[in-house]
Amino acid sequence: MSPIDIGLISVVAIVALIYLGVYIPIALGVVSFVSIWLMRDNYDLAINLIKIAVSDSVMEYTFATVPLFTFMGLIVSKAGLGHDVYEVMSSGFRRVKGGIGMATVGANAVFAAVTGSSIASASVFSKVSVPQMMHYGYNPRFAVGVVAGSSVLGMIIPPSAMLIIYSFVAEQSVGDMFLAGVVPGLLLAAAYICAIWFMGRFTPNFVGGRPSTDYEMLPWRDILSKLGPTAGLIAVVLGGIYTGWLTPVEAGATGALVALGIAFVRRSMTLRTFWEALLETGHITAAILFLITAASIYSRMLGLAGLPNELGEMLRSSEASFFQIMFIYVLLMLFLGTLLDTSSIILIVVPLFLPLIEPMGLSLVWFGIVTVVGAEIGLLTPPLGISCFVIKATLNDDRIQLKDVFLGALPFAGVMLFIQILLIAFPSLSLAILN
Questions:
Q1: What average pLDDT does this structure show over 258-282?
Q2: Which residues cross the membrane (predicted)?
Q3: Which residues is 138 bridged to in the sheet?
């Protein structure tokens, strides 16, 4: 077999293994190792490429952003800041049809800016928001759909683990990726709120509920006390990166320290929860480290096979336009989103398309935002919509079935696709802060 044939078979094998339940880094690493061995008929070369992949990926200084931002997000979650933000947002939207849903989106957007995790957002707001909406007579399907849809904001609003993974795969600045995610993330949050207003106006039965008139407007002192810690943490992290005073690694360390200080001042952190946060940080960091190493081996295997160049030559010979190429790319991500999780999609498709995008003179930072938003849609689509599974498991309510979560999230997946098209048509939306 030719290297191209081996490369094609390896990509199919990786997707199949992941779908069958094989741990993602294992599937990427083992298949890539065997493919390199077969292509070059050299076992020592395959071993040496693994050594190079380790040294060139996770040994980089910028990899320190992973444990630091992960630790910060866990501390913030345990400190109860998500509940405070939700209280303020609920107070502001209390008299609007679908207002609690809008409050959930707003609170998720703020919470995402200090956690960077869609799983944490889905878990927190399943407990806080869904019972509140059901108390006020909202359609359970709408209630869980809002939480599922808005939870994915944690993947695009910095600090985001997916943006960090992409930055390593594409060799881009973590700081640039964080700044590029701000406008698209806020745009997606605003689109969600507009969609909820539209549904409340034109499909009131799907939304259900009644205005929560028994909510009292919070005094300004309470609003400041509840939002102050979160706003300060966002200002320290993103403000430090934007002004250039802090590198992403330094911003992560500073944010983790500030978050720890907030937790101890609020007395929401015990030695036990602190130790649990440290252990969970280690587990998440090790998993991402393994992912990045396996992705580096996979990229080298694709390069040896010449598969990206072959794909590029095929598209160039077909004289495909920019929008046709992006249509194929988004379609591929949407298809894989029904089978794989977000990180798997990024690790598989980005190395294939990067050699095609770079010669076109397109920004790889913009391409990263488009990739993450496209892959995020998979969090809401069956059969492997991870956010939907987390919500169902967290609620443990027999009145809400898994299909209700998926159907409730469907309109929000449509909104995400609309924003994806806007980001492709207007790259300046992603690069506004960087320019």
A1: 85
A2: 6-38, 58-80, 100-121, 142-166, 178-202, 223-242, 277-301, 321-354, 366-392, 412-434
A3: 208
More confident residue, 366 or 132: 366
Answer whether residue 188 shows pLDDT above 90: yes
The DSSP line for 126-164 is HHHHHHHHHHTTB-HHHHHHHHHHHHGGGGTSSS-HHHH
Q: What amino acid occupies position 259?
A: A
Q: Say if residues 196 and 172 touch (Cβ distance below 8 Å).
A: no
CA dihedral 66, 342, 144, 94 (to 10 degrees): 50
- pTM above the 0.85 mark? no
What does the block give as tokens for 346? 């990024």
Question: What's the token pair of residue 304?
Answer: 């040896």
Q: Provide mean pLDDT across the span 46-74.
A: 77
In angstroms, the CA 151 to CA 104 distance is: 9
Tens digit of pLDDT for each residue in 305-352?
A: 777 777 777 766 777 778 888 888 888 888 877 767 777 788 888 888
The predicted pLDDT at position 215 comes to 57
- What is residue 385's DSSP assignment? -
- Tell me the helix, strand and coil percentages in the chain, rounded to 5: 80, 0, 20
First-residue to last-residue Cα distance in the chain: 47
Residue among 98, 85, 14, 87 at smallest CA distance from 298 = 14
Question: How many structural domains comprise the chain?
Answer: 1
Q: What is the DSSP secondary-structure string of 37-83?
A: HHHHT-HHHHHHHHHHHHHHTTTSGGGGHHHHHHHHHHHHHHTTHHH
The closest alpha carbon to 364, from 170, 181, 175, 174, belongs to 170
For the chain, the average pLDDT equals 82
Where is pLDDT greater, at 268 or 349? 349
Is the peptide bond between 158 and the residue preceding it cis, with omega within 30 degrees of 0? no
Least confident range from 22-36, 249-263, 384-398: namely: 384-398
How much is the pLDDT for 211?
Answer: 58
Dist. CA 416–CA 94, nearest whole Å: 25
The residue among 269 and 413 whose pLDDT is bigger is 413
For residues 390 and 326, what is the distance between their CA atoms, to the nearest angstrom? 31
Q: Which residues of 205-221 are buried (b: 16+ CB within 10 A; e: fewer)?
A: ebbbbeebeebeebeee
Q: How far apart are CA 22 and CA 294, in angstroms?
A: 13
Q: Which domain holds residue 255?
A: 3-431
